[in-house]
Amino acid sequence: MVTSYVKGRAVEYRCKDKLYNLGYKIVIRSARSLGPFDLIAINPEKKEIALIQVKKGKASWRDIERLQQLKNIEGQYNVKIYLYHKPHLQYIFEEI
After folding, report:
1. The pTM is what?
2. 51 near 36, Cβ under 8 Å?
3. Which terminal residue of the chain, N or C, has fewer Cβ atoms less than 10 Å from its own Cβ?
4. What is 22-77 written as a DSSP string?
5. Contact between residue 87 and residue 78 where contact means Cβ atoms under 8 Å apart
6. Element spanning 12, H or E
7. Is the sign of the CA dihedral 23, 65, 70, 55 positive or negative?
8. What CA–CA distances, in Å, run from 55 to 59, 60, 80?
9. Domain limits of the chain?
10. CA 21, 16, 41 angle in degrees (round to 5)?
11. Which run of H or E residues covers position 95?
């Protein structure tokens, strides 16, 4: 039996492949995502980060409305790379 989760995951993987073909070098899937997006894609050439909600059918007006609420986070950001680890007695963020 093919579950709804398996069908949705298959669409996410198709979307992920399409993003790679469009030039995105890093695509991260949020498994069993209950958040506002399912995929995060990074295109280093365009300096673009895309947040994608994947639907296996047609999106409802509620889906679109929920995503439009995220428009306020669009803009330019500074990106920093950190390692979170425990070199001694406690965990720290170490900028790379």
Report:
1. 0.79
2. yes
3. N
4. TT-SEEEE-TT--SS-SEEEEETTTTEEEEE---SSPPPHHHHHHHHGGGGG-S--
5. no
6. helix 4-21
7. negative
8. 6, 10, 31
9. 4-95
10. 85
11. strand 92-95
Structure tokens at 50: 């895309």
- Please give the single-letter amino acid code of residue 18: K
CA–CA distances in Å: residue 79 to residues 12, 38, 43, 49, 59: 26, 21, 13, 11, 31
